[in-house]
Design brief:
heterodimer; A: mainly alpha; B: 232 residues; Rossmann fold; six-stranded mixed β-sheet; 9 helices; 9 strands
Chain lengths: 266, 232
């Protein structure tokens, strides 16, 4: 049953997901051939730097919009399928509450992970023109020494971090939607408020942990050499993952409890 | 044989309002029961509780001896009083969906009924008229070999000719051991198919008798008795 639920969730989301990501990839292709490939890095000038800043800002906006749309898609599918009129069918299927929750976690994760991979693929395509790689090669050694690893390794680490944190993002979205259902007259508003309040609390907890463990205040990363920088980054990542794990488990348990005991489909 | 449905001191509160108050009810197999009562009497609340869509404030529900859950959902076929399919789905997608999730769903029976009604399976659900949507939903619900059919206002939004078709569909598609619980305001339309009548009033059981008992005891039709009991 779990596989069937996941199948129908993905089927429902597929059309919009494919469409917006296809548009993103088309923009990346166009930007690569019409803009990136025409850049001349041999003589850096002010107009070049200005146009690059503008271009990077636009791509950042595009990537952010894409991620937000995917998150909203995941959230709306969860809400509509379980807590709107569609819930009359979903909740009367011979499927348990945890199966519903797991199906949504799996399908939501697949969409968000695919979003990350497609975004990464688009960016990779943008920056792999001959002129860009040649320009990068001139500063590669210096950059590697500064970072403690090559830019490609760092990018892969960041992608892996994104892929792992998608799980907690999905559960956090569902937790917020479920908490919103506790306010029958303002379900959507309740869910949005729950999302921002939860995020705020997590930020405070993170800062407290960083203070307690000596990451803050005044940890000057600019003074670190490459190796120390990597060690510092991995320590931070380990702390983030630990916190993320605890919070995600707590949110999963809370979502499961609320769905079992408190949900009233009106 | 154990009753298909038992409610024991079933209570549901919305805030401080009691939608159902200590309702005791038992329903045997093999009958068509009408769940009747004025607006706000607790009919839809009871139906949602039976389907696990609401959590009781107090009391118990047993369907075939089990509390509402995955096992009871396999044997209960429920028709809500609203459209509940995703608008982007086509009729054929909905049939595939039912076939995927309900082992007791007969695609053949559903297809036959849709053909009789001349409903195009390639149409999107959102493109169907209100009455056709209700017919499609009923066809799907009645195409399951369920032990208990719970139909909330199945004939509320359709024309008289469609009502006849829907009632014929209900009668033709449930087996002798199955029970049908129908909630409606259109008593005169369904009176002839009912074996039993359950009246709810202000969330309490007002009457639970067979149609024959009502006619003998009160010398009235169910419709006339309803108008008398719930006179405004």
């Amino acid at each position: 049953m779990l596989g069937k639920l996941v199948k129908y969730d993905l089927k429902a989301a597929a059309k919009i997901f494919i469409l917006i990501h296809a548009v993103y990839m088309l923009i990346c292709f166009a930007a690569r051939f019409l803009y990136m490939d025409r850049l001349d890095f041999s003589e850096p000038s002010e107009p070049l730097i200005f146009s690059l800043i503008l271009f990077i800002s636009l791509i950042t906006l595009l990537v952010s919009a894409l991620s937000i749309i995917t998150c909203l898609q995941v959230a709306f599918r969860f809400y509509r399928n379980l807590f709107s009129k569609e819930g009359y069918l979903s909740w009367t299927l011979p499927v348990s509450g945890p199966q519903h929750l797991w199906a949504k976690i799996i399908s939501g994760y697949i969409l968000m992970a695919a979003d990350c991979i497609i975004i990464a693929a688009g960016i990779l395509f943008l920056v792999t023109g001959r002129n860009v790689t040649a320009a990068y090669n001139t500063v590669a050694d210096e950059l590697t020494a500064e970072l403690g690893c090559s830019l490609s390794t760092l990018s892969l680490i960041l992608l892996a971090v994104c892929l792992i944190s998608c799980i907690s993002s999905v559960i956090m979205i569902y937790f917020s939607v479920v908490v919103g259902q506790l306010f029958p007259s303002h379900r959507v508003l309740g869910a949005v408020a729950a999302y921002f309040i939860t995020n705020f609390i997590i930020q405070i907890i993170s800062v407290i942990f960083m203070l307690v463990l000596g990451f803050l205040p005044g940890y000057n990363t600019a003074m670190l050499d490459g190796k120390a920088m990597m060690e510092h980054m991995f320590r931070l990542l380990a702390l983030s993952f630990l916190l993320m794990l605890v919070i995600t488990i707590a949110q999963y348990i809370a979502s499961h409890y609320i769905m079992k005991k408190k949900i009233n489909l009106l | 044989m154990r009753p298909i449905l038992e409610c024991n001191r079933l209570t549901k509160k919305y805030g401080s309002f009691f939608a159902l108050t200590e309702l005791n009810l038992s329903l045997e197999r093999g009958q068509i029961a009408g769940l009747l009562g004025p607006n706000g009497s607790g009919k839809t609340t009871l139906i949602k509780l039976l389907n696990g869509l609401l959590v009781p404030t107090d009391g118990h529900i047993m369907i075939n001896g089990l509390a509402p859950g995955t096992a009871t959902k396999k044997i209960v076929s429920y028709l809500p009083d609203c459209s509940y399919f995703s608008d982007h789905m086509k009729v054929k997608d909905i049939i595939a969906y039912y076939s995927d999730f309900y082992k007791n769903f007969s695609t053949e029976r559903a297809s036959k009924m849709l053909d009789t009604l001349e409903i195009d399976r390639n149409m999107r659900f959102s493109a169907l008229s209100k009455g056709t949507k209700e017919k499609v939903q009923l066809v799907l619900v009645m195409s399951r070999d369920a032990d208990l059919y719970i139909l909330d206002e199945p004939i509320g939004g359709v024309d008289p000719a469609a009502r006849d078709y829907i009632l014929r569909t209900i009668l033709a598609n449930y087996n002798e051991n199955a029970t049908v619980l129908i909630s409606t305001h259109l008593i005169s339309d369904i009176e002839n198919v009912l074996d039993r009548v359950i009246f709810l009033q202000n969330g309490r059981l007002a009457l639970n008798e067979t149609v024959d008992e009502i006619r003998t005891k009160y010398g009235k039709s169910v419709d006339a008795l309803f108008r008398e009991v719930f006179k405004c």
